[in-house]
Design brief:
The chain has 231 residues and is an alpha+beta fold. The protein has eight helices and eight strands; from the N terminus they run αββαβαβββαββαααα. 20% of the residues are buried.
């Protein structure tokens, strides 16, 4: 009925106009626009990314209904990028999430195309579902907790940096249709990292993490997002 639609619209407005301020409190972000069922936020790259996950979590609690979902796009830009271009490109990322089936978060992966001096982003059809995004977030947090040291406000990985490039290579090969070789290569890479961590006493932690996450074939397409985030 019209009254129920009006009620729904009013509560969505309450979330995106009022509750979102509490979610973002204390973060280095600025709300350019928030109202109705939409928001555009700019700020420090890490705070904006963490905010996206918090908004999704709080929205799920607010609606208590899996039929209501969020599609989001996240973009890292040069600080000198004009704001209107940021809005255009992040809007393209959001459309990419919707084109993938909604309830998805398009972050880090982007294909820029320049046409008539207008910078745009090609819409992709393989953006991860929010459940996969939270999985990637958990991997990142586990790696920083168990295989990194915080020095002068920055994390230093105890893992070889070559691991990131190898995971990227494996993920890309998998997406291009190769299955057997990338997985064999992944097993080899995991084994080599195990050897390098043996002297540090991290061998068991690494193998537990690898078996639970990296060696599961359904997770291989997500490696690219993890690598960009860790990098």
């Amino acid at each position: 009925s019209l009254s129920r639609i009006a009620t729904l619209s009013r509560f969505l407005t309450i979330f995106f106009k009022l509750y979102i301020d509490d979610i973002l409190k204390g973060k280095e972000v600025a709300v350019v626009y928030s109202g109705g069922d939409d928001a555009f936020i700019v700020g420090a790259w890490s705070d904006v990314l963490e905010s996206a996950f918090e908004i999704q979590e709080k929205f799920s609690l607010f609606t208590q209904n899996p039929s209501f979902t969020i599609s989001a796009g996240y973009l890292v830009c040069d600080p000198k990028e004009p704001l209107y271009q940021m809005a255009k490109m992040s809007g393209d990322m959001e459309e990419s999430a919707k084109a993938s089936g909604r309830n998805r978060f398009a972050f880090f992966l982007k294909e820029r195309k320049t046409k008539d001096e207008d910078l745009s982003i090609e819409v992709r059809k393989e953006e991860p579902l929010w459940v996969d995004c939270f999985k990637i977030k958990r991997w990142k947090e586990e790696i920083l907790r168990d295989f990194a040291e915080l020095k002068d406000g920055h994390y230093e990985l105890m893992l070889p940096r070559s691991l990131l490039y190898r995971l990227l290579e494996i993920s890309r090969g998998w997406k291009e249709g190769e299955k057997i070789y990338p997985y064999i290569y992944l097993i080899y890479v995991v084994g080599r990292i195990r050897e390098s961590l043996r002297k540090k006493g991290l061998e068991d932690k690494w193998m537990n993490f690898a078996r639970a996450n990296l060696l599961k074939t359904e997770n291989i397409p997500l490696f690219t997002h993890l690598v960009y985030w860790l990098d």
